[in-house]
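#lab-general

N.A. 3:47 PM
ok so I finally got the sequence cleaned up, no stray characters, all 298 residues accounted for. can someone with queue access submit it? mine expired

B.Y. 3:52 PM
send it over

N.A. 3:53 PM
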Amino acid sequence: MHFSLTAWAACAPGLREPQAWLAWARQPHVPLRQGLDSDLPALTELPAMARRRLSPLGRMAVQAAWWCQEAPVGGASQAMESSQRDATCPVVFASRHGDTQRTLELQDALAAGQAMSPTAFGLSVHNAISAQYSIARGDRDNYIAVAAGVASAAAGLLEALSLLADGAPEVLLVCHEEGVPLPYDRYVDPAESPGPAMAWAWAWRLNSASSASAQALRFTLSLSHAEGLGQAPASACAAPASTTLLPFGLDLLRFVLTDEPQWTREVDGLSWRLRRDPGTVAASQAPAQGPVASGGVP
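B.Y. 4:20 PM
back already:
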C-alpha cells in the first residue's frame, strides 16, 4: 500500500520542536514522563476548561494532532491549504492501552467499593481523547479509535490507508501511549512498556502517493506472515540494535524521521514492513509543526 506523509508533529516530555525530534531519531531513547505534570504542552488552541478535562497524555495527543492538522504542506498555495483544511479529513487515533491513568484509577475505586465519577468514566473510554479533539475543533468527520495490541500504531496506519483507498482525500493519524502504572505493569511486555514513566504522542497527515506535494515523504506498507512463525517473540529487524528497545509506535516514528530505507517489525506472527520509496525527500525536509510557546498554561 503506497502513501505519502505530508506533515508530522510529535510531543513528549522535553521533546516538542521538530528539530529536537529529528535529533532524537539519530540517538533515540524512551521519553520519560517525569516532570510532565509541570511541563504540559500549552495547547492554547483550546479554552482553559477544555484543557483541564484532558489528562497529561490527552493533552500531548491533542496538541500533536492540532499541530499536525494545521501544519503547512510544502509547495501548496494558501488557497490550496484552505481548501485542504475545509475538505473532509477522517481521523484515526491509535493506542494500545489508551488513557491508563484514568482507567486504572477508576478500577482502583471500584475495587475499594467507592463510587465512580460519571465524568471520569466518560473521559476514560478508549475514544475519549479523540472525542475531545473533535469537540474542540467542531469536527463531524469520521473518527476511529484503534487498539490492536503491540502493533496498534501499524494497525492505525492500515486503517488510515484503508480510508484513503475508500476515497478520503486526506487522513490524520494520531498515535499516543503512556506506561502502564504499578502494579499492572507486570502484565505488559517490558519491551513495549519500559515503565510507568513512559509518555509520548505523534501525528501524521497522510494522503495517496499520487496526490502529494514534492516535499512529502513517500512510503510503501506491506504485511506478511513472519518467518519462523511461533519461534520467536516480537523483534525489530533491519534497524540499529539500539532501536529494538523502543516501543513499536515510537520505533515507527523514529524510522520515518531518519533516512533509513526500510523498517521491519515482527509481532504476533505478522511482519510489518515500511519501505521508503526511491527518490523521496529527506525526513528533515518534510513539513512539520511545533510549538510557538510551551508550558505554563493551566
